[in-house]
Amino acid sequence: AQLRYSVPEDREPGTPVGDVAKDLGVEVRSLAARNLRLVSESEQQHFQVDLAAGVLLLYRRLDREALCGQSPTCSLHLQLVMENPLQLHRVEVEVLDVNDNAPQFPKPEVVLEITEVANPGTRLPLEVAEDPDMGSNSISTYELSPSEHFGLSINVRGDGVKMPEIVLKKALDREKVAVHHLTLTALDGGNPVKSGTAKVTIHVLDANDNPPVCDPPVSKVYLEENMPVGTLVTKLNVTDLDEGPNGDVEYSFKTSNNAPGKFTKLFGLDSRTGEIRTKAPLDYEESSAYEIAVRARDKGSPAMEGHCHLRVELIDINDNSPEIVLTSLSSPVLEDATPGTVIALIGVKDSDSGDNGQVRLQIAKELPFKLVSSFKEHFSLVTDGPLDREKAIGYNITVRATDSGSPPRAAQKTFYLRIADVNDNAPNFSTPFDTAHVLENSLPGTSVFSVSASDPDEGSNAKLTYSILDNGMQDIPISTYFRIDPDNGTIYTVRALDYEQDKVFQVPVEVKDAGSPALSSTAVVHVFVVDQNDNAPTIVYPSVPTGSAFHQTIPPLVEPGYLVTKIVAVDADSGHNAWLSYQLEETDEALPFQVEHRTGEVRVRAALSESQSPHRLVVLVHDNGMPSLSASVVIVISPEEDGVQDFSKSSDLPQSSPKDNNLTLYLIISLVSISLVSCVMFAVAVARC
């Protein structure tokens, strides 16, 4: 918004200027919370804001003439900045002129000379009075004290300045009156009227009766600014009908209220030729026009003079680059900011005028931002698309300002905008499925595997915590078997594992970040228990109590190769640890029997005689583990006539029991389940990829 107020220049500090809260439609109690602050475009602070009342107050007494000089309008520009949300309001305060200055002549006494042969109607220019006030408070008119020979004429110059001139009404007679004393009064248009006076002394002279004449008396010249020093502005055309010294003209500047003292620093006048040249560079932005008054005076006795008025109007050229002012910047900005969010307030200024002062702003098209014009010479930088901190943690934004001059001038300003993180990314495991192996009977606390996850967010949004989920896939909660370090994801055993009881575990691991709300993901670690040789072979046939022997009878006359009996043993381990081998314990005497290494069959190795006594055999059963474990059984073989036995019908041989069948069924179901679960998880992983 843009607010406009006005205040007279003579008001005391603390005078209310305008109700800012009411005009902006903002509640007074919210001003302090929104951090309302006043930014002045001038070096001095002239105003202040009463946050309790929401009123703009005068900070110091204003002097319009000191602030704006002779400018027809006087305005002070302010900026009101409020936050949450960020807003910029422009305030223009017009300083109203009051009649606090009386007209004043440059000199309290003016001395003029006029020849006695001057014709009625001859004009004598007078010094212009100065009144710093403007408008109706400036000089309104002049008055001259009553005189028989002289009257007052007031002419209006091109810039509106009133020029008083004394006009000869009646022919003079120097012999009667040589000096005339008059009083010139300057009146302003204020209420009450103020005035200033100057004494005018007119000396009547003889001789030179033709003054220099300027043709034309008023002229206008156009000149480009920044022309080289010494550039010819114009050459005055002045004629004097007299001859000799009375027609020899000298030129000089006649100062006026148009920048007195500074005027002669910018222009130089050749007193002999009347050429006016520049003495210093001219700047359109400092002043667009100059009024020059030249006095042309002859060398007669008495000397006569004429007056030339020259108006020099400067042509603006594009000699000023735009200036970019970063009024406010909201950095960092959240990456989930909606399109249209205000990021910065930017102002631009160009001291040139017309097209040279028309400025357009632009930023790189590939940036997710755009410029929106708030009001004249003020822009808002807003988001124009989604932001993603994980793709760009910040942006170097270059704002380029280009004017419409020929050739155009440009300026640019670069600032850095940081993007703040929000928790918009869930943690991600390096792989959704992992496989680990651990030896059975390992001590509790043994490291099994380390899972690893990453989160592209930062700070607390990227701080990860690992945990194990109990999914009910095992009869006993998985947490009774394994634990995980919540910081580094290392999985440890809680107790010793038994391969013969559980061969594989599915350990669901969840990783969760510390964002709000927290995001998580899961992975499954298949932990395979590696078998160790921790079970010795068990002899299931023949089954005899510990310390006893198995008695077997055979016919006395049998051929070598005769099957005496068969040793049947099992091992709870698996793989190589369960591969069994059979052998006879070595003795001092040679035995007529042998045992098959792999099958455990005990056969006759040599023919037996009827007189042989019973034989005692010790059969050892070894597994293939490292170190190897073993079991043994003692068999006593006695040759007897009726010692014939059918092993296929023996009730002592182990038969396939329902329990063994159930164990086989359970093993098949477990293998099929593991295969199905692996296929499903593989399909899920493929779908995620």
UniProtKB/TrEMBL annotation:
- Name the keywords, alphabetized: Calcium, Cell adhesion, Cell membrane, Glycoprotein, Membrane, Repeat, Signal, Transmembrane, Transmembrane helix
Q: Among its keywords, does the record have Transmembrane?
A: yes
Q: How does it sit in the membrane?
A: Single-pass type I membrane protein
Q: Which PROSITE patterns match?
A: CADHERIN_1, CADHERIN_2
Which spans are transmembrane here? 663-687
GO molecular function term, any single one: calcium ion binding
Question: Which residue range or ranges hold the Cadherin domain?
Answer: 6-105, 106-214, 215-324, 325-429, 430-539, 546-647
Subcellular location(s) of the protein: Cell membrane
InterPro entries (alphabetical): Cadherin-like_dom, Cadherin-like_sf, Cadherin_CS, Cadherin_N, Protocadherin/Cadherin-CA
One GO BP annotation is:
homophilic cell adhesion via plasma membrane adhesion molecules
- Coarse class of the primary localization is membrane
The record's listing under Pfam families reads:
Cadherin, Cadherin_2
Q: SMART domains given for it?
A: CA
Which cellular component appears as one GO term in the record? plasma membrane
Check the record and name the PANTHER family matching this protein: CADHERIN-87A, PROTOCADHERIN GAMMA-C3
- The protein here is known as Protocadherin gamma-C3
Organism from which the protein derives: Odontophorus gujanensis
- The gene that this protein is the product of is Pcdhgc5_2
